[in-house]
Specification:
The protein is α+β, with helices and mostly antiparallel strands. It has two domains: 3-216 and 396-401, Ribosomal Protein S5, domain 2; 220-392, Alpha-Beta Plaits (2-Layer Sandwich), CATH 3.30.70.890. It is 38% helix and 20% strand. The chain has eleven helices and 13 strands. The chain has helices at residues 3-14, 112-123, 147-162, 169-184, 191-198, 243-258, 271-276, 281-305, 313-325, 332-343, 366-383; strands at residues 20-29, 41-42, 44-58, 62-67, 75-78, 130-137, 203-208, 214-218, 226-232, 348-352, 359-365, 389-392, 400-401. The chain has a six-stranded mixed sheet, sandwiched between helices. Strands 10-11-9-12 form a four-stranded antiparallel sheet. Strands 2-7-8 form a three-stranded antiparallel sheet, sandwiched between helices. Strand 4 and strand 5 (75-78) form a beta hairpin. It binds 2-deoxy-2-fluoro-alpha-D-galactopyranose. 2-deoxy-2-fluoro-alpha-D-galactopyranose binds next to helix 5. The site of 2-deoxy-2-fluoro-alpha-D-galactopyranose has 11 residues, from helix 5. Mg(2+) binds at residues 148, 180. It catalyses: alpha-D-galactose + ATP = alpha-D-galactose 1-phosphate + ADP + H(+). It holds the Pfam family GHMP_kinases_C. It is found in: Cytoplasm.
């Protein structure tokens, strides 16, 4: 992603120059899945893949957005009349397909993300106004790698800098989450926006999603002869089809039945007692996943702090089993990546992100990575699946101004 390409495209489209160019990355999550909307712990890292936004302010109350990825042309919106649809009409629309009523018609659902960010800033009482924005992105969409958060955070950071809003990174991430929840209608947690806004190169972000306290944890796998591969199954992941919302509602019901503010408040050591108090088998499984997953994050942070990255492998594998069997968000293609990678000598593997398709991660010795990748590709071909896309998850920088 080159800022100068975004500048050239901006000039060709709108005329003149942008005032600046901002970038925000996609992410993978090392461990801590479906814990963020339970006030729990997560450990994402930013990818080198990013969305770049070339932006110029406007003073006539108009927002124009255009994406190099979208055939829908320039979307023109009135800043004053940006309004989320009534909650009864929120469609929980996936990034690729959704056209929330407020953005409407055939203007392309992706525009709801930047429009929603401007709406959320203004709703918070901040004096952000119109803009011309051109986006370029190499974050794979529908791959569970947070292309939506990259779009939101690049927009939010640009408006923050241009309109002098002085938002902290966590506050910016929260407002981007507001945009996604209340404007676009996807009931996601805070992990993806925090990862895109706050990650640092060479580190994973150890984040408490309750109070957004965070620690940057050095994550130099190459120095240990290790690599973390991302395998994009190219099975479209969509949070918007209601299954994610169902899991979230089930977790909230579990917390209510157990009399705690959130499932994060169920201690791992009293999990059996808590489970014994739940009669609904689905809720019991959701609770078990969340409580054990928070515990796995603790195990991983302890191992990384002790300089034992190889030993996180079995914890990743246990996390996958829990997402597959208890939380029921895996997919046959994700299970095939994990099983094949482990059978070919990977140290650990699991699905990453929301699930229902998307990507898996594989922890491996560098010396075995090619063999594992070839085995996964061959297993996919044999099963008749589309060829997966594999690349290393180099821990990269979070959102920033690039020009
Ligand atoms: C998606 C959501 F957007 C995140 O908030 C998180 O819940 C994740 O799924 C699962 O851990 O990426």
């Amino acid at each position: 992603m080159s800022p100068s390409d975004a500048v050239s495209a901006f000039s060709a489209l709108y005329g003149g120059e942008p005032e600046g160019v901002w970038a925000a990355p996609g992410r993978v999550n090392l461990i801590g899945e479906h814990t963020d909307y339970n006030a729990g712990f997560v450990m994402p890292l930013a990818l080198p893949h990013m969305t770049v936004a070339a932006v110029r302010r406007r003073d006539d109350g108009v927002l124009r957005v255009h994406s190099g990825d979208s055939p829908s042309g320039v979307v023109v919106l009135s800043v004053e009349s940006l309004d989320p649809p009534p909650s009864s009409q929120l469609r929980f629309a996936p990034f690729e397909q959704g056209v929330p009523p407020s953005v409407g018609g055939d203007r392309g659902g992706w525009a709801a993300y930047p429009a929603g960010v401007l709406w959320a800033l203004r709703k918070a009482g901040l004096s952000a106004g119109g803009a011309d924005i051109h986006f370029e992105s190499d974050v794979p969409t529908g791959a569970g790698l947070s292309s939506s958060a990259a779009l939101e955070v690049s927009t939010g950071l640009a408006l923050n800098d241009l309109y002098g809003l002085d938002l902290s990174r966590p506050r910016l991430a929260q407002l981007c989450q507001v945009a996604e929840n209340a404007f676009v209608g996807v009931p996601s947690g805070i992990m993806d926006q925090m990862a895109s806004a706050c990650c640092e190169a060479g580190h994973v972000l150890y984040l408490d999603t309750r109070d957004l306290t965070q620690r940057q944890v050095p994550f130099d796998l190459a120095a240990e002869g290790l690599t973390l591969l991302v395998v994009d199954t190219r099975v479209k992941h969509a949070l918007g089809d209601g299954e994610y919302a169902k899991r979230r509602a089930g977790c909230e019901e579990g917390a209510r039945l157990l009399g705690v503010p959130a499932l994060r408040d169920v201690p791992y050591t009293s999990l059996d007692d808590a489970l014994a108090r739940l009669t609904d088998p689905t809720i019991r499984r959701l609770v078990r996943h969340v409580v054990t997953e928070d515990h796995r994050v603790e195990e991983v942070i302890t191992l990384l702090d002790a300089g034992r990255p190889r030993d996180i492998g079995p914890v990743l594998v246990a996390g996958h089993a829990s997402l597959r069997d208890d939380f029921a968000v895996s997919a046959p293609e994700l299970d095939l990546v994990v099983d094949t990678a482990l059978a070919s000598g990977a140290l650990g593997a699991r699905m990453t992100g929301g699930g229902f398709g998307g990507s898996a991660i594989v922890l491996a010795e560098v010396s075995r990575a090619d063999r594992i990748q070839a085995a996964v590709e061959s297993a996919f071909a044999t099963a008749g699946h589309r060829a997966p896309r594999t690349f290393p998850a180099t821990p990269s920088a979070g959102a920033r101004r690039v020009a």
